[in-house]
Design goal:
Layout (H helix, E strand, L loop, with lengths): L3 E6 L4 E4 L1 H7 L9 H4 L3 H13 L7 E7 L2 E12 L2 E11 L1 H36 L7 H32 L7 E5 H11 L1 H6 L3 E5 L6 E5 H17 L6 E8 L3 E8 L6 H4 L23 H10 L4 E6 L5 E8 L2
Parallel strand pairs: 7-9
Antiparallel strand pairs: 1-2, 1-5, 3-4, 4-5, 6-8, 9-10, 10-12, 11-12
Helix pairs in contact: 4-5, 6-8, 8-10
Length: 330
């Protein structure tokens, strides 16, 4: 059985334990064992007591969650009747560790989303409240400045909502993908061209080092654009003025190795350990004016995983960063 089974008699003594239950509880059956020996957790022991006491007049069953080391167990407790009289209790143990972890992750995610939504919404409402006081009715430039700040905050919120909808759609399998023969060189060149205005504005020299004519892959074009849009965009946003951004494609056997290298602010060891976490953004005086949702790199890693690809990063503070993507050949 996948479930553990423990049977208690009317005296609360365990009289049967299957191997799975022994594994879950980290013990072996022996003569003279008591209820507290098996279930030192007071809530679990109290629930077993209550079920035994409920029979036969008002028999009841109970469900209890139990932590044993790193595992989370669900106890289903039912009364055991003999000839209509209370005879003890049967406890079924199920491993719900993965379900528990999923619940914890969901709660963490919801908490982070609420936090990310709260700050820009609060800022927008505060600006609007100031405008509504009439304090700046005769100061059009100041009112325009506050409205522009509202617009920036609102656009950041819209970006966050879009990213969240995309992640959710991908999780539930609603993102339609069209796998086709693509050329990495063409896909990356297209993204570099898209960001040309930004690189020229900050005088960042952007270059593609890809000597071969084609770099074939089998992928969805939208996925390729999302991967390299995020990496190139970050390479510009976190770069220094008059810096450089180089994308290099190299042959790595059965895969292509694509490195996006910048001359930007770089990352510390602590930041590197969290850079692919959802909603994580580097917070420092150097990044205070840089907009972002903190979902870009997490999404890149998620998309690459669906192609059996991977991403790594090497960086040092004030020495730039190099993000390397390993993508299977087509």
């Amino acid at each position: 059985m996948h479930e553990g089974v423990v049977v208690f008699n009317i005296r609360r003594e365990p009289v049967l334990i299957n191997p799975r239950a022994e594994h879950f509880l980290g013990t072996h059956f022996r003569d003279g064992m008591t209820l507290p020996d098996l279930f030192p957790d007071r809530d679990a022991a109290a629930a077993i007591d209550a079920v035994i006491d409920s029979a036969p007049a008002h028999p009841e069953c109970r469900l209890v969650r139990l932590s044993v080391g790193e595992e989370r167990l669900q106890m289903s407790i039912s009364p055991l009747l003999r000839d209509g009289e209370a005879g003890g209790a049967i406890v079924i143990l199920s491993d719900v560790t993965e379900t528990w972890k999923a619940e914890q992750e969901k709660n963490r995610f919801v908490s982070m989303v609420a936090h990310e939504l709260k700050s820009p919404l609060s800022a927008i409402i505060n600006y609007i409240n100031v405008i509504l006081t009439g304090m700046f009715d005769d100061n059009a430039p100041k009112m325009r400045e506050m409205l522009e700040r509202c617009k920036v905050r609102g656009e950041a919120l819209l970006d966050l909502v879009r990213d969240l909808l995309y992640i959710n759609s991908r999780e539930v399998g609603k993102v339609e993908r069209s796998i086709e023969d693509l050329d990495l060189k063409a896909a990356i060149s297209s993204q570099l061209e898209f960001f040309k205005v930004q690189t020229e504005k900050r005088r960042i020299v952007a270059a593609l080092d890809a000597p071969l004519e084609r770099y074939p892959v089998r992928a969805d074009r939208g996925d390729m654009d999302r991967i390299f849009m995020n990496l190139i965009s970050n390479g510009i946003k976190y770069n220094r003025d008059r810096g450089s951004l180089t994308v290099r494609i190299a042959d790595a056997g059965e895969a292509w190795e694509i490195t996006v290298r910048d001359t930007g602010i770089g990352l510390s060891e602590a930041e590197l350990s969290r850079i692919f976490h959802e909603f994580y953004r580097v917070k420092s005086p150097k990044t205070s004016g840089i907009a972002g949702t903190g979902l870009g790199l997490a999404t890149v890693k998620r998309v690459l995983g669906e192609y059996n690809g991977r991403i790594t990063v090497h960086s040092k503070p004030d020495a730039g960063s190099a993000f390397t993507v390993i993508f299977p050949k087509g």
